[in-house]
């Protein structure tokens, strides 16, 4: 079909022909992750979500073979891809499930990135190749029971004792916590905030899973309890001694999330589009109703805009021009739009929309975690507010 | 051990294809992808080279408009290089015309020990090109391989049959067609994808191969497409109400189709 101008009619699944913004190589990479998600994630993720588990040990080596773990890092067995390519991989993974994307974000951007960026040569050589291969699983311990949006209030302490450090404290909401072989733990010291590479088998390290979650169920979330955990100085990340360390990791991970959210939104929109075309009420497909059409149109527009924002920020990052506040723009807006799309899509599916037979409510619930972690919607609004006005409105008074 | 794999690049089966009413052929204006049928041959070739402990996989393809997307996929899986034959004169080539081109291209690969193809392509589906290539190259041909092992200068093939498989042996070099689904094609790794863009693709014309344009394309084709018809609309199925004897009717129906 073509239009009066001779241009081909838009594809409902790629309305603005955004595929054309990707190089052949990026398309091949995107298609590869999409195929992996279709083969390995989608057939089972409803069950994982239902049972509240994620087969980390089984999937980690597969993700490693593809090159997804730490894929945008250079050297040490990492694929060394562009930032945009990393984003596209996150988009496809999260179109499967936010849990799968979270696994990859935590491994690559939160556990491997600090070692790659702030670690010594020996630390990089020891940990990164095995983490890139998915043989060693990592986690990132920043949040605590009493310190979430305000990480500066952390209580976990590391005290120097001869050639060792002794860590005490509790970390909360830690993705991959109980399945990890190694935790990057942030702790205050007499000399600023430091990061430590803590093998989870170290005496005094315990991880307890958080149960009764209704969101991100196909992902492991744990509490870490550190009681007199002793690690040598050689496991301290030497190149950073402030909150800049963990915050720069979060900035990397948020970049993946702003792509991922566009993927979750796309999955919900496509599920609604398919369903609306098939479901018949009052003798016609429900896509015949103007009210349904408006929902589909609003969803499509938001999915396309979120994808455009993501691609644009990806190109900026590849040119070295992406500022943290611009990442906040993408994280804040793409995740809230994805939530909007998920809720709208859920309504199109009627009662079927509340079951795990369809992907929509899974994404909808997952996105409640995604809008909370890596900086809540409010926190990113404040980052943007400060960037616009120069005024820090985080701590009134 | 050097293996050549013939890979066809075809319109994405996920996009509904359209026939061009004037040429009466499939429109091939969109991007072409690696025929899934050929991904098994590529995987098999990569495994054979690894098992041999050396050598490389070379791809050979004939496709319109200098198309390389499907080749890049196979290069990203691990093939070392590719020969692409693309020429306007090839439009309308029938299976034999295609085989002539592929055979000439294969002759340019030095030291090829084994040539793999799929048993049939997913779009054209004649299933005749592999044997024609073997005939033109004067090489032995083994079809429907489900397992291939190379032992010195001999290839041992488990050849799928309706009842099971035959063990077949023949001297190398040989042309072997690989049945779809017999190995699990690897996902291209990201390192592979990034490396693929710098792997050599030698793009050749009909003249480069030393063929005359009259031997290929519409000019050389021994076939003519006389007319194209819409496929008949699907008839409504038969509904069997289960009154306790439905199974008998279903068995009789299947028996009638001779599928039991
Ligand atoms: C599934 C899941 C996985 C997680 N994984 C990890 C992980 O791997 N590692 C890790 O370290 N952490 C992880 N987190 C923790 C996450 O980063 C925190 O939950 C997040 O930072 C918010 O902290 P909080 O939950 O303590 O909320 P709070 O900070 O207590 O916020 C509560 C509410 O107050 C608002 N608020 C707070 N401050 C302000 C302000 N100044 N102005 C206006 N509003 C404000 C917030 O926006 C929010 O709405 C995870 C969380 C979840 C849900
Ligand atoms: C009307 C018409 C127009 C055509 N126009 C063009 C054109 O413009 N440009 C052009 O390049 N070709 C063109 N062709 C050729 C066509 O695409 C097929 O390559 C050819 O007809 C082979 O038939 P098949 O797919 O049934 O092969 P099969 O015998 O079913 O294929 C078996 C195996 O042989 C190998 N093989 C087959 N074809 C190729 C190939 N092309 N490259 C690499 N390996 C291959 C594959 O491994 C394949 O799985 C045209 C064919 C027809 C009939």
Report the β-strand fraction of chain A as a percent range.
5-15%
Helical region count of chain A? 10
List low-confidence stretches of chain A.
none
* Largest sheet: spatial strand order of chain A: 2-3-7-6
Give a quick summary of the entry:
The complex is a heterodimer of chains A (397) and B (260). Chain A has 397 residues and is an alpha+beta fold.
Can you characterise this structure?
The complex is a heterodimer of chains A (397) and B (260). Chain A has 397 residues and is an alpha+beta fold. Chain A is built from ten helices and nine strands. In chain A, a hairpin with a 2-residue loop joins strand 8 (280-281) and strand 9 (284-285). Chain A is globular and about 80 Å long. The model of chain A has no long low-confidence stretch (mean pLDDT 96). The longest helix of chain B is centred in the N-terminal third of the chain and has 17 residues, at 36-52. In chain B, the strands form three sheets. A nine-stranded mixed beta sheet of chain B has the order 11-10-9-12-8-1-6-7-13, sandwiched between helices. Chain B has a two-stranded antiparallel ribbon with strand order 2-5. With 260 residues, chain B is α/β, with parallel strands linked by helices. Chain B has one domain (3-256): HUPs (Rossmann fold, 3-Layer(aba) Sandwich). Chain B has helices spanning 36-52, 69-77, 95-107, 129-137, 190-196, 217-220, 246-256, and strands at 3-6, 9-11, 19-20, 25-26, 32-34, 57-62, 81-85, 114-118, 141-151, 154-160, 165-171, 174-178, 201-204. Helices cover 27% and strands 25% of the residues of chain B. The chains are: A alpha+beta (397), B alpha/beta (260). The A-B interface holds A 24-25, 28-29, 32, 35-36, 65-68, 71, 79-81, 85, 89 and B 69, 72-73, 76, 187-194, 196-197. Bound molecules: flavin-adenine dinucleotide (2 copies). One flavin-adenine dinucleotide (FAD) binds at residues 6-8, 25, 35, 37-38, 61-64, 90-95, 98, 102, 117-118, 120-121, 124-130 of chain B.
């Amino acid at each position: 079909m073509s239009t009066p101008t001779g241009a081909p009619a838009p594809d409902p699944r790629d309305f603005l022909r955004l595929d054309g913004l990707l190089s052949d190589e990026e398309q091949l990479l995107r298609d590869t992750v999409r195929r992996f998600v279709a083969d390995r994630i989608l057939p089972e993720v409803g069950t994982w979500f239902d049972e509240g588990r994620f087969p980390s040990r089984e999937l980690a080596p597969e993700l490693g073979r593809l090159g997804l773990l730490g894929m945008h890092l250079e050297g040490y067995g990492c694929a060394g891809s562009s930032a945009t390519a990393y984003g596209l991989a996150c988009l496809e993974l999260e179109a499967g499930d936010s849990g799968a994307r979270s696994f990859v974000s935590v491994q690559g951007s939160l556990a491997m990135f600090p070692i790659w960026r702030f670690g010594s040569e020996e630390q990089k050589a020891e940990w990164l190749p095995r983490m890139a291969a998915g043989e060693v699983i990592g986690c990132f311990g920043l949040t605590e029971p009493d310190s979430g949006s305000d990480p500066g209030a952390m209580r976990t302490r590391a005290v120097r004792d001869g050639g060792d450090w002794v860590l005490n404290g509790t970390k909360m909401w830690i993705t991959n916590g109980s399945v990890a072989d190694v935790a990057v733990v942030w702790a205050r010291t007499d000399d600023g905030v430091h990061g430590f590479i803590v093998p989870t088998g170290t005496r005094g390290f315990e991880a307890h899973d958080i149960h009764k979650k209704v969101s991100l169920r196909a992902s492991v979330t744990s509490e870490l309890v550190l009681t007199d955990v002793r690690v040598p100085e050689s496991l301290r990340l030497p190149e950073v001694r402030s909150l800049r360390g963990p915050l720069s990791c979060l900035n990397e991970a948020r970049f993946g999330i702003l792509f991922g959210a566009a993927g979750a939104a796309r999955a919900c929109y496509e599920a609604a589009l398919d369903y609306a075309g098939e479901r018949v009420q009052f003798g016609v497909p429900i896509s015949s109703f103007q009210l349904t059409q408006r929902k589909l149109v609003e969803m499509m527009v938001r999915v396309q805009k979120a994808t455009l924002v993501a691609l644009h920020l990806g190109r900026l990052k590849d040119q070295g021009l992406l500022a943290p506040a611009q990442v906040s723009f993408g994280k804040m807006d793409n995740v809230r739009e994805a939530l909007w799309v998920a809720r709208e899509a859920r309504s199109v599916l009627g009662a079927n929309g509340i079951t795990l037979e369809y992907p929509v409510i899974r994404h909808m619930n997952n996105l409640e975690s995604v809008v909370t972690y890596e900086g809540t919607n409010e926190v990113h609004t404040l980052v943007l507010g400060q960037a616009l006005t120069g005024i820090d409105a985080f701590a009134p008074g | 051990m050097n293996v050549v794999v013939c890979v066809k690049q075809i319109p994405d089966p996920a996009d509904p294809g359209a026939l061009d009413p004037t040429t009466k052929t499939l429109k091939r204006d969109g991007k072409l992808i690696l025929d899934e049928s050929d991904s098994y041959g590529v995987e098999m070739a990569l495994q054979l080279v690894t098992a041999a402990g050396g050598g490389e996989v070379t791809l050979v393809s004939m496709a319109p408009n200098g198309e390389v997307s499907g080749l890049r996929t196979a290069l990203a899986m691990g093939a070392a290089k590719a020969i692409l034959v693309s020429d306007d004169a090839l439009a309308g080539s029938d299976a034999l015309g295609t085989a002539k081109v592929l055979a000439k291209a294969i002759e340019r690969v030095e030291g090829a020990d084994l040539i793999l193809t799929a048993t049939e392509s997913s779009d054209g589906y004649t299933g005749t090109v592999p044997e024609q290539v073997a005939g033109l190259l004067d090489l032995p041909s083994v079809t429907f391989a489900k397992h291939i092992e190379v032992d010195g200068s001999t290839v041992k093939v488990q050849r799928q049959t309706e009842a099971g498989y035959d063990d077949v042996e023949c001297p190398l070099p040989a042309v072997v067609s690989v049945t779809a689904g017999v190995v699990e094609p690897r996902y291209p790794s990201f390192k592979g994808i990034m490396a693929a863009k710098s792997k050599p693709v030698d793009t050749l014309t009909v003249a480069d191969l030393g063929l005359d344009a009259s031997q290929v394309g519409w000019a050389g084709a021994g076939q003519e497409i006389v007319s194209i018809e819409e496929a008949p609309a699907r008839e409504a199925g038969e509904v069997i109400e289960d009154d306790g004897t439905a199974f008998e009717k279903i068995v009789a129906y299947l028996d009638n189709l001779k599928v039991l």
